[in-house]
Amino acid sequence: MDGKNFRKYRKKLNKTQKQIAQLLGVSIKAVHSYEQGWRSIPVHVERQFYFLLARKISGAQDPCPCWNQRECPEYQREQCPVWEFASGNWCWFVSGTICGGVAYHSWKDKMVQCRTCPVFESILEKIDTLAWAVKPSAPE
């Protein structure tokens, strides 16, 4: 996630910089720096932000579980924590998943793969296309 998307998504959530800072557990100066592109967004902040966005759209029709969309073989499913915890639409959020036969040990490395995955792409598409109430006069 870059600063431009960070700001766009913050506005879709109709949150001020102060409010999103509180939700993400960072300082308001950090949020300002992310949005201006002065600082890169740490992976734990990006992960939390995507979680908030995904929870906001959770009322939308959920896609079929990732293991069905990706046609994972049974032996791979049984080793994957997403299968174990029946979290097939949250595969991008759970660390240690086995995607494409590889278990990613860091969320940052995992997200490189997730950004090309139809499961995560559909979540981003929903986030981008939903017409959330964004007040034009929302404070920066």
Describe the structure.
By secondary structure, the chain is an all-alpha fold. The protein contains 9 helices and 2 strands; from the N terminus they run αααααααββαα. The chain has helices at residues 3-12, 17-24, 28-36, 43-56, 66-69, 74-79, 81-84, 107-114, 118-129, and strands at 98-99, 102-103. Strands 1-2 form a two-stranded antiparallel sheet. Strand 1 (98-99) and strand 2 (102-103) form a beta hairpin. Helix 1 packs across helix 3 (28-36) and helix 2 (17-24) crosses helix 3. The chain is elongated. The two termini are 19 Å apart. Residues 133-138 have low confidence and may be disordered.
> Gap between N and C termini, in Å?
19 Å
Helix content: 40-55%
What order do the strands of the largest sheet run in, or round the barrel if closed? 1-2
- Structural class by SSE content: mainly alpha
- Overall mean pLDDT score? 83
Low-confidence stretches: 133-138
Sheet with the most strands, sense and barrel status: 2 strands, antiparallel
Q: Can you write the helix and strand succession as a string?
A: HHHHHHHEEHH
